[in-house]
L-lysine N6-monooxygenase MbtG (Exiguobacterium oxidotolerans), 415 residues
Amino acid sequence: MYDLIGIGIGPMNLGLSALAHPTPLRTLFFDESEQFSWHPGMMIKDSMMQTSFISDLVTLADPTSSFTYLNYLRSINRLHTFYFYEKLLISRQEYNSYLKWVATQLDDLCFSTRVIDVQDTGDSYEVLVEDVKTGERKTYETRNVVIGTGAKPSIPDTFDSSVIHNTQYVMEKEQLLSKNKISIVGSGQSAAEIFLDLLTSDRSPDLELEWISRSTIFETLETGKLGEEIFSPSYVTYFNQLPLETRQEAVSKFTRSQNGISPETLQAIYEHLYDLTTDQKDRVQIRANLEVEQITHDTSFAIKMRHTELNQVRTSNTDAVVAATGFVPALPRFIDRLNIEFEGDQAWKVDANYRIVRSIATDHQLYATTNLELSHGPAADNLGMSVSRNQLILNDVAGKELYSVEQHATFTTFD
Ligand SMILES: Cc1cc2nc3c(=O)[nH]c(=O)nc-3n(C[C@H](O)[C@H](O)[C@H](O)COP(=O)(O)OP(=O)(O)OC[C@H]3O[C@@H](n4cnc5c(N)ncnc54)[C@H](O)[C@@H]3O)c2cc1C
């Protein structure tokens, strides 16, 4: 009998495992991938994290943990160079190496195992897992389950199926660079990074590039000091108890904090655009106010767009399309049988301790580290916030305070 079984091993549940490690809790985590990997398709050279290295898997809960980013640096003999580097933001590749380093040290992580069912037995859960290589199935019993299955790529149905989602970019880059014209759809950080990467590639001088955005301006990520306080336990606690309609409205107000482009990426793009020769300028187009309605494919792609303000149809022909069109929560099918209460289209009801609300009262819990935007606001996907979330979950599972949670640590008062 386990205390907690986790479904999915992304950074959220990996952090949970790292924090559970020194506690007496019996935990086990499953992931269908062969080994730990974090967004491999977006490991673009020079891409940076948007959150400080202090928001590693454990520091905000326990800076003395052996799984801190600083301890990782020491293990690879890089601590002094990092001290002279003097930066809070690290590269995405280095953060990924850190996550892998943590994953190799935890013995409660099982890879190549897909969770295919969870059944409530009345006083516990039976978790059915399948070995993705051999097809062998096994059942595990646990008092509590945490769902951390992350999100999956979202591409509109009206786009041809050969359009590439940005999560495949690195794997498809060589193939893309053999084309004459590439179009990128979307206006968030991923679209900007791909545009910059192609703009600065060796093929750039003779490559035609088109960047299509629905919005009028390319929003900058909110990096203002007080503005960032919405990524704090205080704001998340406040947000969680608001009425549904107020939360729905609030979520839509935070696009800059969630989907904005980092100032450094925008600066780098502008500098490269500024340096283009007149010839090259004709080959690079940044097109705003265009909602892509349909993408078809024959010998090339045909993009049909509508101008959001002039209501006119525009078309473009291109050789390849990268859709940086976002994600939707990856919800396992078996949750249908668990009497979960939903409050939005796909959003489950989740309480302040990250327990998923079920229509039957139980003393064994289902927790979520994913699909939390409507219940916990814009910080749902934020790596720093995931640490305090993991503290609350472990305290709740243990029935006592294993980690003390820092509350009211912001200057702004929200309630
Ligand atoms: C390119 C990119 C950069 C980002 N950078 C930052 C950043 O700098 N700072 C920040 O705060 N946030 C960032 N984010 C947001 C967020 O941190 C990430 O999306 C993060 O990966 C979310 O972690 P997760 O654990 O919820 O899910 P995921 O990383 O998506 O992991 C979910 C895992 O569940 C597994 N799984 C799913 N279903 C099953 C099943 N049935 N059985 C077994 N396994 C299953 C999947 O294989 C997957 O490994 C970034 C997001 C992206 C896309």
